[in-house]
Give the backbone structure.
Amino acid sequence: MFLFSREVVGTTSRLLYFKSDYIVLLMKQIFLLLSTVLWLSLSSLSAHKPNVLFLAMDDQNDWIGCMGGHPLVKTPNIDALAARGTLFTNAHTQSPLCNPARTSLMVGLRPSTTGIHGLAPWFRDVRQWADLVSLPQHFANNGYQTYSNGKIYHSLRHQPADMDDPEFQHWGAIGGFGIPKPPKKLIPPTPFGDHALMDWGVWPLDNDDTTKSDWEVASKAIEMLDNMPKGKPFFLTAGFYLPHVPCYATQKWFDLYPDDASILPKMPKNDRDDVPFSSWWTHWSLPEPRQKWIEENDQDINLVRSYLASTSFIDNQIGRVLEALDRNGFTDNTIIVLWSDHGYHLGEKLITGKNTLWARSTRVPLIFAGPGVKGGQKCNLPAELLDMYPTLADLCDLPELKHLEGISLVPQLTNANASRKRPAITSHNQGNFSIVSEKWRYIHYVDGAEELYDIENDYDEWTNLASQKPDVLKKMRKWLPKIDNGPVEGSSHRVLTYYHGVPVWEGKIIGENDPVPHDD
């Protein structure tokens, strides 16, 4: 046995304590150093990621110069953007209605999956979808600063006070429909309740665009670009309200278009003679006037001219934002995506408005430009607004999210002819779908009725071939979504249900012999 004196033991203990303290201090310093290196590495990676400029139009159909939807439309800034990027000429919305369309593209799920079919509810008020990671949140979670201006979601314009994880980190211009408004409507009272938004014409009369809501949206986006902090990539949005009704524009934009019938689209009166009656159910009773009322009240030229003027005005606002992006030196490192939530009828198929499964409602502009995108391309493969979420995440090297139902368009952004097997799918309420390939548009209604159009040879979709092409119908039916959920709790406005063979529009039964409402 060895015996140690008290002094030796005490000295040894003090040495051990000293050594232990030293090791703890050293470990803390190493941890701090590693944390700093990791933070600097992540900051460096974020700083070199591309920015995103997210430009949205409202109710803009394919009447864009580069899309060829209208022979007279003037959109030089959008056309120039398409010329230096990739234009998807066969892109389609997931719903011909604002709330379901915008919810779908912002969260990456189809309306037939979420059950959000009407203008309500807000998806975060639905229990099973409340915690979905939205597109801007995914960017914020990966080091981006996110900015909102104007209409991106259907109704959200500012951050809810009770929401911990913000939709956007920075909120700018709110905007609104038809601002500034005239003292009274410019057109006669419209059917179905004379809705305040059903209006169009020259306004304001002083030819000053700077008072308009969409000018403010562009100006705030420009201000954000001019004052953008350095060192972090940004995700900046500008959501424009026009050409959504009311279609007010100043005289300078009307002057771009003739005030005569040469601007009208082709609208044969027998266009719906070969389509099923249930096609009317998807827009049974709406504020948007039927073409019958438009013509009886001498509004056909005025409406089309107002829509075209509004489109050209928005093109100008987009040009202002793109000029600011370039002036601030961001263009070379910014992915630009321009889109519209859905289209709009201006007399085709005997109606005005959206809420149909034909091309005028579903076909939309979709343009990508910037790093990772080949310039001067046109891609006619079917694409969906649903694809924007995974595409932007892919281009910016963000982590993949498993819930997304869209498919990245990156292969087509580098080669417009890259293989893409899936068609574009649009739904409007449960059981109503359009399926679009390069050659065909197939429509399936909730009662089982069908339409089929050869869109290569029948661009206007005038001849329904459903009774003549059983093999094509069989092929297209295979793409009908397996998940087809009905409206979630709280659904309202433009909701159609069909249970036990009975169609119900906004809570009212459509009788078997009820005539189509035209001007009630």
Notes: The CA atoms of residues 13 and 380 lie 79 Å apart.
